[in-house]
Amino acid sequence: MIAPVPYPQDFALGLLHDMLRIRRLEERAAELYGEGKIRGFLHLYIGEEAVAVGALHALAADDAVVATYREHGHALLQGVPMNAIMAEMYGRQAGCSHGRGGSMHLFDARTRFFGGNAIVAGGLPLAVGLALAERMLGGNRLTACFFGEGALAEGAAAESLNLAALWQLPVLFCCENNLYAMGTALARSQAQTDLCAKVQAFGVPARSVDGMDVVAVHEATRAAVEQVHAGHCPCFLEFRTYRFRAHSMFDPELYRDKAEVEEWKKRGPIHSYSAQLKAQGLLDEPGFLALEAEAAAEVEAAVAFAEAASLEPVETLMNDVYTPERSP
Amino acid sequence: MSRTTYREALRQGLREALARDPRVFLMGEDVGRYGGTYAVSKGLLEEFGEQRIRDTPLSELAFVAAGIGAALGGLRPIVEVMTVNFSLLALDPLMNTAATLRHMSGGQFSVPLVVRMATGAGRQLAAQHSHSLEGWYAHIPGLRILAPATLEDARGMLWPALQDPDPMLLFEHGALYNLEGELDEREVVDIHSARVRRAGTDLTLIAYGGTLGKALSAAEQLAGEGISAEVLDLRVLRPLDDATILASVRRTRRALVVDEGWRSGSLSAEIIARIVEQAFYDLDAPPARVCSLEVPIPYAKHLEEAALPQVPGIVAAAKGLLG
C-alpha cells in the first residue's frame, strides 16, 4: 500500500489516467511489434510509469526535457501527440521525427522535447548545455534529464554532474533506477551502489524516492524543482523503480528471477495507486474501467492514424542532413 | 594590410565575433586565465568576462556536448578543444549527436556549434598530440569541416561559420600559429570554396592547412626548374569543392595531393577517387599523393620530419608525375 493521496480528485485521477495512457500505448506497441508493424528496437517502460507521470506533472510546460531510448511515456507526458508517437514507431511521414528516428528518437521542438537519446548518458551533458543557455540568456526554465542507473557508470555522467555543479546550472537529473543496465545488475557494475552518495560527491544535492509511488515521485519532484529555482543549482533524484518487461524485444531475460519480477509486480504503480484511490473513495471500479477505456480508445485512434499515414517519400531521404539555406 | 600572425588573426576573428553577437561565447580548457593553450584567446577574458570566456574542466565529452546543448538552447558557442587527439574523447557527441540531430529529429533541431582545435605535427609533441585526423571527421555527414591555412582565413572563417546553422569543425594546424605576414582585411572569406593560391599549368598540387605552405615552397622550387605548378588550397574539407578541384586538374591534367593525414582510407584517397571518377579522360598521368608515413608520429626531430610530407618529397613526386 502507498501513502494517502493528497490531491483533489481531478488531479488525482489525471495521474492515473496518464499512467494508463502510457501503459496501454506500450502494450499495444508490443503487439504491433509482434505483428511486424513496428521494427527496430522497442524499449518498454511498463512498470516505471509512475516516474514519468509523477515527475513531468511537476514541471512547467515550457521546461525542457531530455530523455533516453525508453521515452514513449516522457514524450507523451511532455505533450507530444500520441498520434505522432505511434506514426513515428510506424516509420511514417506524420511521425514526430518524420520516420527518421523511430521508437528511440522521438523529438518535438514545439514542446521542447529534446529526444530520444540512445547513447547511455548522452543526454546528461546535452541537458547541461541547455541549462547553460537558459542561464546565460536570462531565462528561468529548467531542464529535466531522465536516464537509467546504468548511465552513472559512464564518464559522461561524472563529467556532466561536475559541470552542472561547478556552474550551478538549473538541471534536474532524474535517475530511473530499475536495477538493471540492460542485463547487468547495479551491484555487478558499480562499486558504489548508493547512487545518492555517488552524486553528492560531485556537489549535487540528491535524494532517493520510491519510484513505484506516483505521489512520492510527484512530491519529491515538486520539491526538487523548487530547490533548483531557489538555489540556482542542479538537483538529483533517484527513483527506485522496476521494469516489468524485457529490456527490449530481443531480450530473453536470463539475468533475473521470474520470482523477483513477480514480487515487484505486486507493487505495480497503477495497481497500487488505484487501490489507494479506491480506499480513499476517489475512484470506483466503473470509474477505473472508464479511464482504461478512454486510454484504449486514444491508443486505437493513434494506431488507425499511423496505419493511414503515408510513408515519407524516398526523394526526401537526404533532406535535413544539413539545414536548408533558407532557414535562419 | 597589416602585419600579424596566424594566432593573432584567429584572436581577431574571435574578438570580432564576440563583439558582434551577444549569443557568441568561447569555452574550453584554459581559454580564460591561462590565455589559451596556444595563446589564441589571450586577453579575451579581460575584455569579455567570465560568462563569455569560460574555462572548463578537463571534460572534453561534457563540454563539447554542452556546446551542442547550448546551441540548441539559443546560443552560438565556440568550443575550443586543445588538440585533435583530445577531441577523440568527444567523438561521441560530435558523431552521435551534433552530426545526427537535425536528420534524426526530422529537421526540427539544427546545431549551430563551432568547434576549434589544433591539429597536425611538426612541433616534436609525439604520438598523442600530433595527428591529423580531420580526414576522419570529413567522413561524417552532418558536419562541415574547415581548415584555414592563411591569415585571412584564420581571421575570416569564424564569422561565417557562426552564421551557419550546422555544426562546424575548424582545424588549426599547430605549426601555423606563428606564421607571420600581411593580413588583407578586405579579402572576402567564404566557407564553401577551394581556392587557387598559385596559378600554374603543368600540374596541380592539392593541399590544405599545414601542407599549403609546403606545397607553395615546392611550387617555387619547381618553377626554378621550369615546371609550372598550380597550388590549390582545399580550405573546406567537407563538403569538398569538387568543381574547383576538377577545373584545376582538367586544366593542368596532372594532380598531386599533399595531405598530412595517413594514406589508407584518407582524405587524399577520397580526392583522388573523385578526380579519377570525374576527370579520368582529362588526365595525362595517374594522380599521386604525398602523405604522412603510416606510423604514430614520433618525438625525435629527425624521425618526425621523416614521417611527414616535406618539400623535397613533394618536388620529387611532382617531377615523377611529369615523367
TrEMBL record, chain A:
Its EC number is 1.2.4.1. Residues 18-310 form the Dehydrogenase E1 component domain. GO terms for molecular function: pyruvate dehydrogenase (acetyl-transferring) activity. It catalyses: N(6)-[(R)-lipoyl]-L-lysyl-[protein] + pyruvate + H(+) = N(6)-[(R)-S(8)-acetyldihydrolipoyl]-L-lysyl-[protein] + CO2. Keywords: Oxidoreductase, Pyruvate, Thiamine pyrophosphate. Pfam families: E1_dh. Its cofactor is thiamine diphosphate. One of its GO terms (biological process) is pyruvate decarboxylation to acetyl-CoA. NCBIfam families: PDH_E1_alph_y. The pyruvate dehydrogenase complex catalyzes the overall conversion of pyruvate to acetyl-CoA and CO(2). Heterodimer of an alpha and a beta chain. This is Pyruvate dehydrogenase E1 component subunit alpha. It comes from Azotobacter chroococcum.
TrEMBL record, chain B:
Keywords: Oxidoreductase, Pyruvate, Thiamine pyrophosphate. SMART domains: Transket_pyr (SM00861). The keyword Oxidoreductase applies. Its cofactor is thiamine diphosphate. Residues 4-179 form the Transketolase-like pyrimidine-binding domain. GO terms for molecular function: oxidoreductase activity. The keyword Heme does not apply. Pfam families: Transket_pyr, Transketolase_C. NCBIfam families: PRK09212.1. PANTHER family: PYRUVATE DEHYDROGENASE E1 COMPONENT BETA SUBUNIT, PYRUVATE DEHYDROGENASE E1 COMPONENT SUBUNIT BETA. The branched-chain alpha-keto dehydrogenase complex catalyzes the overall conversion of alpha-keto acids to acyl-CoA and CO(2). It contains multiple copies of three enzymatic components: branched-chain alpha-keto acid decarboxylase (E1), lipoamide acyltransferase (E2) and lipoamide dehydrogenase (E3). This is 2-oxoisovalerate dehydrogenase subunit beta. It comes from Azotobacter chroococcum.
